[in-house]
Design brief:
Strand content: under 5%
Distance between the termini: 28 Å
Radius of gyration: 23 Å
Shape: globular
Low-confidence stretches: none
Strand order of the largest sheet: 1-2
Largest sheet: 2 strands, antiparallel
Order of helices and strands: HHHHHHHEEHHHHHHHEEHHHHHH
Amino acid sequence: MTVTGWLQIVLVLSVVILLAYPLGLYMARVFKGEHTFLSPLLRPVETGFYRLAGVRPDQEQGWLAYTLAMLTFSLFGFLSLYLILRVQAYLPYNPQGFDNVPPDLAFNTAISFLTNTNWQAYGGETTMSHFTQMAGLAVHNFLSAATGIALALAVTRAFMHSGLATLGNFWVDLTRTTLYVLLPLSILLAIAFLATGVPQTLAGSVDVTTLEGAKQTIALGPIASQEAIKQLGTNGGGFMNANSAHPLENPTAISNYLQIIAMLLVSSALVMTFGEMVGRRRQGYALLAAMFTLLIAGVALTYWAEANGTPVLAAAGVDPAGGNMEGKEVRFGTAMSALFAAVTTGLSCGAVNAMHASLTPLGGLVPLLLIQLGEVLPGGVGSGLYGMVVFAILAVFVAGLMVGRTPEFLGKKIEAREMKLAMLAVLILPFAILGFSAVAAVLPAALSSLANAGPHGLSEILYAYSSAAGNNGSAFAGLSANTPWFNTTLGIAMALGRFAYVVPVMAIAGSLAAKTRVPVSAGTFPTDTPLFVGLLVGVILILGGLQFFPALALGPIVEQVLMVAGKTF
């Protein structure tokens, strides 16, 4: 590890924190319907959408109506994207002449982009036409991110309201998020990417002559625009198969900084929005502190593991001074590759600028564990916030048991109904991850897709289902996932991780919104102090450790022990 590497990491994270505060306050004004500097331009557009759709923006919905609206919208989104994938050969802007996407891959991809997972069991530049990339995948990059933010807003209003049974209006939240937040930010970021050399064109490819005199065909397309929303919306789905390791998606160190900042920006700002909207900014600071405590620990551990390299490479004569550079881009180096890996899995983004399967066992364990901790560090746009609120509810319940105080969070009593629903939500991830992984580990049809046996092969399976259920989208590249088994089961895991999780969360929000806010008293456990931050971090770690440690012990942990001993499986 080097001083320069640490300075790069500190610089990126500092910029995120500095930008998150004003963006969070701006979003709070947007979601409260207040005037912003974009209102003169966008308010007529917003009003026009409501008139066309027959939406009354002043009419709020209860938790069930809000959830049903989200599920209905998601169902139509899935069907429309599935149809585009199945008939892309007959649609315009297909200069490569790509054929229709097979049914199982179309199912997997439609679910993937619908749930903000963006798992890709295909090579983008060799499978998807420009029309599919723009009208199908990029559109859902916006809509899935906006849906997650809308759900986070509904949960936020549960603490704003007192004795009310409503959580806002899904259609209004979806519209405002897209118009006032995601679209303007994406335009600015796409222009910045263009300046760093990311292409934006409808051309299918260009033929070039290499330095050796050979001919090479380089795939092109509308990359900059999709790259912007891919990162801002924590989508992660790359235009190219190599994702952000590809020189056309991420050509320079500056573009790499911008991508990491963009990934973290909206999710971090939403925590500030939460504190502002509930009238407790310190609460937003506390939640963000818990998120970044675990994220920074993950970055440090990954950087340390990769900087130390491996005994096998050292024995082969590779200079250990550069650390483990297998699967990494020289233009990014070990520090920024480690930061990118931890950030993209602490978030539910899934974009990669290095191959996670080529990380050291310990370096690969960290991204895997960050996903399994619930994708709340700081998690996907919206989903990270409402996931962290669930953990906060569990933490205040534990605190109440420990000190004999009534569990309360932001003036709302946490009772048996909320605890049952919270536990139902947090059990979805281990059910989907460990259940499917156990079957795949013994099923010949699944094992035939592995490039490695032993602990690393188990890690490939475990990572795939963790990524799917956690709506992350990154992968260990040794797994050939484009098979009927993996396309189907990973798609089901994605749907469970998104919808089976959010329904009980919305039920919690509805229950809390209907409760009358309890005034602060001497018996109230403060939830905006360093003590609570430590308790919240402990609850997250204990839940993740108890649920997944046995499986991790058989995969990356035993692989790390073998590596240190100079052995391979």
